[in-house]
Amino acid sequence: MRILLTGASGFTGQSFSQLARDAGHLVVALNSDLTDRQTLRQQVLEAAPDAVVHLAAISFVGHADENAFYAVNVVGTMNLLNALTQLPKVPHRVLLSSSANVYGNCEVSPIAENQPAAPVNHYAMSKLAMEHLARTYSDRLPLIVTRPFNYTGPGQAANFIIPKLVQHFAQRAAVVALGNLHVEREFNDVQMICDAYLQLLQHGEPGETYNVCTGIAYTLQYVIDALCQITNHLIKVEVNPAYVRHGEVHHLCGNPDKLHALLAKQGCQLTNPPLEDTLQRMLATAAAINA
C-alpha cells in the first residue's frame, strides 16, 4: 500500500512510518506546508497514494499562537482534502487524526464516540472544527476520523508532561515544577496508536469515528511513583502557577469497544505495552541522549 503521510517528521509520524514500512508498505512523506495550497496540491498529485494518514497539526494545547490552531488544523486540513479530491484515483481510505480533547470535561467515563463534544480550549475546538469540515467531503472521499486519547513514548517533546517527568528523573533532578496535579489521563504507548492507525487503513469503515484508547487512566502521582520505583530516585514536585492551564480537562478516559469490535471481526487486536514498559523505553532513550 502506498501511504501518503502528513506530519511524517513529528513524534507520531516517525513511529507510524517505521511501523508501516516494517509491514511492507511504502510511505510517502508530504513535506509541504499545509497552508501552501499550490505546493500541497502538486505533492499530493505526484504521490498518487492508495491511502492517506493525516497527522500534521499544532498539537500542543499550550501553543502560544491561538490563530495557528485554526490556520493549520482546520484550513490546512481543508487544503489537503481539496487536493485529494483532484486525484485521478481516489485513495481507498483517508485517516484524519483528531483528538479525545474534543470531549472536554465529561462526567461520563469511559467516554464513547457518541458522547457530545464539548471542547474547552482552542486546540480541541480546532480539532472538532476539522471533523465538521471533513464531513463536507464525505461524498467524495472515504474518510475515517480517529480520536486518540493521551499517548507518549520515546521522542515526544519535553513540553508534554510524561517526557518532562522522564527527563527530570533521567537527570536525577531534585525538583520538578508541574501545573495542575489533579488530572487523570490515559497514557498509552505511541506504538499502540500507530498500530491502530495502520489497521484502520485496512479495516476501518469510511464515515466512522473511532476512539483510539485503552480505557485505562492514570493519575500523575501514579506516573511519578512508577518513575521513582524504576529509577530508585525521589523527586520533589512543586506546582508552578504558570503551568496551570485555563480550560484544563481534568479526567479523560475513553471507551475502546467500537475499535476493538471492528478489529475482532478481522481477527486482529492491538499491541498495548504496559505504561511501565513505555517509561522504561523513554528512560533508556533519555539516558542515551544525556550520555
Automatic annotation (TrEMBL):
Source organism of the structure: Collimonas pratensis
Ranges in coiled-coil conformation: none
Full protein name: Polysaccharide biosynthesis family protein
Record InterPro entries: NAD(P)-bd_dom, NAD(P)-bd_dom_sf, Sc_DH/Rdtase_CS
Protein origin, superkingdom: Bacteria
Sequence ranges assigned to domain NAD(P)-binding in this UniProt record: 27-263
